[in-house]
Amino acid sequence: MFRSIAVLVLLVGAAALFVGLALLGRAPGLAPATQHLRRMKDRLDPPRVYDPVDMTFFAGLPHQPPLEERSAIEGRGVIMQGSIQRMVLSGDGDLHLELVENARTAADRDTAYVVAEVTPQWRSGSKGWSFGSLLATFRPNHGGRSPWPAGPAQVRIGGWLNYDHPYDRPVSTWLQYKGAPRRTGWEIHPVTFIEQWDERTQSWQELAR
Fold first, then answer.
1. Domain span at residue 78?
2. SS3 per residue for 26-84
3. Are 52 and 18 in the same domain?
């Protein structure tokens, strides 16, 4: 009987491990698209070039692209200027950022955003990119214990383009400003470069990891 219980516990543990790995995209035998997504998220080298983009650029990216088309676009590095509306530590360890073009005050509504993700690989062992340091740098509308008196900081977020979300459909102009949805399934993921605006020097300063 004890042997049967031990076998059952082992099987349950193995099943739980497989499910966990599958959710992270790391289990064996997953679909090619799922394996591809994991490789894109786990990139450790920064892009050689960061092309400046904006919300209009993201809105124009293809919806539900086939894997071949998607892969070609994901080979591009981009950088976008704006502020962080919301900052959340996800269950998989990614730091989820809602990047918006225009900083808002406490009296303004949230607006449509582009997702940027700082992965554990890029935060590991880093003081400058730790959760607390990034919180103080970004001064997001949501994410800290209380609102920041100065409001969100102006930042530039750079990294790899990555198609990472099933919610991917056109967003109406009304929803952009009233519903605060994610603008597209495309993200900056992983984030590999962060700059903040320095009021004293009136210049962009790279945030060292």
1. 45-206
2. CCCCCCHHHHHHHHHHCCCCCCCCCEEECHHHHHCCCCCCCHHHHHHHCCCEEEEEEEE
3. no
- Whole-angstrom Cα distance, residue 203 to residue 103? 18
For the entire predicted model, the pTM comes to 0.81
pLDDT at residue 76 is higher than 60? yes
Please give the pLDDT value at position 139: 95
Is residue 101 located within the same domain as residue 202? yes
Q: Which tokens belong to 102?
A: 């225009």
Residues 114 and 22 in one domain: no
Domain count for the chain, please give it: 2
**What separation in angstroms does the CA of 40 have from each of 13, 44, 191?**
28, 9, 12
